[in-house]
Amino acid sequence: MVPDDGAAVPEPAVTRWAATGDFDAFVRARHLALLRFAHALTGDAELAADLVQDALVRTGLGWSRVRRRDNPEGYVRRVIVTRYVSWWRRLRRERLVAAVPEAAYDTPPPSGPDETLWRLLATLPPKQRAVIVLRFYEDLTEVEVARVLDCSVGTVKSNGSRGLARLRQALTAGGGR
Amino acid sequence: MTDRLDQDLRRVLRDPQRSPTASPDLVERVRAGMARRRARRRMAVATAAVFAVAAVAGVAAALTPDGRPASPGVVPWLDAPVAPYSPPPPATSSPWPTAPACQGAHLRLAGVDREGATGHTGTFAHVQNTGRSRCSLSGSPQLTGLTGAGARVRIPAEQGTFFDYPPQTQQRPATIDPNEQAVLTIETSYSCAGGAPASTTTYGRVQIRLPDGATFDVADRLDSSCPFRIGTWYRPVQPPPEPAEPWPTLQARLQGVPATVHAGAPFDYIVELANTGPADVTLGPCPAYAQALAGTRADYRLNCQARPVIPAGGSVRFAMRLDVRTDVPAGPAKMLWSLHGSSVAAGTEVTVIR
Q1: What is the pTM of this model?
Q2: ipTM above 0.85, yes or no
């Protein structure tokens, strides 16, 4: 599930990054917040954990550079969003060449209006979902969202309005709320 | 409809019931991932086919059943356990001594920016020292705002914000030289501890007020569903550089690691340290190394006495031995070798059988 060209995953190592105590402190202090953000972004706890791990590894490798920024956490969140979007694109390509069966529920999924909205969010294309999460979970302005997604404010607006329209349409059609 | 959907989205996305739990060994996992990625980069440089053939042939000929090398060119394994690596404390730059308090007349609002993070919004007010001498801003200023009725009131604010960082990057109090800036964080939030917020409080034309009465407008409007929070003035600083990589030209490669290993039994393999640089590398002080397998770890001193120098462009092969603990679960397991205090590392996967 790791959105990377994953190879072997060795267990704990002792390396020089251990010396960057402030990176360790950063990871400890912000991991849960980043995990929550990634979960809101993906709707998938496992994917969220993988994305956060991947983003923190990338951040750690460039920590001497990243920590000189005013906002290292913003950098990590940007990596998470970027990796999520590219992971989704790759998954989509794979589905185009090989049909992947829908994941089946072992037990009936939880119901209720919030669950409906949560599941509908998961059906949005990642850029639309990213805009909505950054707007409504992170409370970023459209300019700030554009900076995170590295796109124009116009693209943010169009993705946001399309995403909201899709949600409204689906909720109305399903009588969700 | 839009407002309702906005509210629903905020509530659903921030529902604490959905909050995932953090992994307790997250730092170790991240470090292991970093070691893996660096090792992978290095491995990609090597030619895998040649490497594999050399590994099989090399180990078969290199080690006797007691772990000592049978063929020349492989440095014997040294049974010299050491303590696990303990990283040095993080470098910090010394805070400046506190100077006389900054006067409002010698400060100007240089800018205000905002940042959102996981339901928290930070408003960062930057003030610049326009005076001719160093001065300090300590503690938190008073925060005021206009109510809906137009009355200016003091905004009750709790101390400490989500955006406070360690002194490596934020020095408190903010002692600033002429033209330097100090920063104050005001935090608003829609995501309170203990559940969804009940209502939102809004203030217009928010100001910070210094002890000498000087005021600065920092926001046209701030609203929050949770208590407002305020930080203390800080001076943003660049952290000192990380310690240099002690062996920047060394690359580690694993050779002859068996595909399957037995729980409760040792196995032998070889680590080749290749020097890709133009100068000889002297292993002094002699480093230790860590071997990790399925979450267990063993640390030993490298046998530097036998081969203290790795020549430029050359390599040295060190025999290794790893005891697989009896409680290691059967199945695929990750293995990693790394030099203490260095990014020199290599990893692979083995299958544990019982």
Answers
A1: 0.43
A2: no
